[in-house]
């Protein structure tokens, strides 16, 4: 199982742009793989403390949890780079 966490805020301009890319990649990947979960986490409504757990200091921020490893990426990624980041291509 792969989990992908996207941290964002509603007021964040880059987060809005990245959200469109994230949604497209999510759609593409979930059509091909049923072992990938995507989660959108608004840092201002994060009651579970995930932003603190993954040391989110800047948004947008992407976390991929796969095979016991944690990979993080700060900032925007285009569709190809995001898909590669998630799937290790």
CATH class: Alpha Beta
Question: What integer value in Å does the Rg equal?
Answer: 12 Å
SS strand fraction = 25-35%
Q: Averaged pLDDT, please?
A: 96
SSE pattern? EHEHEEH
In helices, the fraction of residues equals 25-40%
The CATH architecture would be 3-Layer(aba) Sandwich
Largest sheet: 4 strands, mixed
Q: How many structural domains? A: 1
The rounded distance between the terminal residues' Cα atoms is 16 Å
Name the structural class. Answer: alpha+beta
Number of helices: 3
Count of DSSP strands: 4
Strand arrangement, largest sheet?
2-1-3-4
- Reported by name, the CATH topology is Glutaredoxin
Poorly predicted spans: none
- The geometry reads as globular
Q: CATH H level: which superfamily?
A: Glutaredoxin
Describe what this molecule looks like in 3D.
This protein is an alpha+beta fold and 89 residues long. It is 37% helix and 29% strand. It is built from 3 helices and 4 strands; from the N terminus they run E-H-E-H-E-E-H. A 4-stranded mixed β-sheet has the order 2-1-3-4, with helices on one face. Strand 1, helix 1 and strand 2 form a beta-alpha-beta unit. Helix 1 crosses helix 3.
Comma- or semicolon-separated keywords:
single chain, 89 residues, alpha+beta, Glutaredoxin, four-stranded mixed β-sheet, 3 helices, 4 strands, globular
How is this fold's topology laid out?
Blueprint: E1 2-8, H1 13-32, E2 36-42, H2 50-53, E3 61-66, E4 69-74, H3 79-87
Parallel strand pairs: 1-2
Antiparallel strand pairs: 1-3, 3-4
Helix pairs in contact: 1-3
């Amino acid at each position: 199982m792969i989990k992908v966490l996207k941290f964002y805020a509603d007021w964040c301009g880059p987060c809005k742009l990245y959200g469109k890319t994230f949604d497209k990649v999510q759609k593409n990947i979930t059509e091909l793989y049923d072992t990938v979960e995507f989660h959108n986490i608004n840092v201002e409504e994060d009651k579970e403390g995930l932003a603190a757990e993954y040391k989110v200091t800047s948004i947008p921020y992407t976390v991929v949890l796969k095979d016991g490893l944690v990979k993080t990426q700060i900032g925007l990624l285009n569709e190809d780079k995001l898909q590669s980041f998630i799937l290790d291509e």
